[in-house]
Amino acid sequence: MLRILLILFLAYVLWKVLAPQVLPFLRRGPRQRSEILPDDDPYAVLGVPRSASLEEITRAFHDLAAKYHPDKVAHLGEDLQHLANERFLAIERAYSTIKRNHPQSGEQR
To answer: What 3-state class would DSSP assign to 73?
Structure first.
């Protein structure tokens, strides 16, 4: 009987300590943009090193765009569709940023 009371007491204490930190995370809707991708570095978004050629960058873009394209994830749940759409938009932004500023590209600004 004492063990059961001790276990219940510890569970209660843990609930009081952890619940305020855990519940807001569980109640929150779709993840924030910063949790999905590192938008700061377009090379990290595409998963290529900074020394990658424009051809390698384009190949990585096409692979990721095909994987996260909205038509490819239409059968998944709403939350996963939202995450995939955010990822797809970030991939497009990263590719256009790199392409615009890459030394091998003729579109430098």
So the answer is: coil
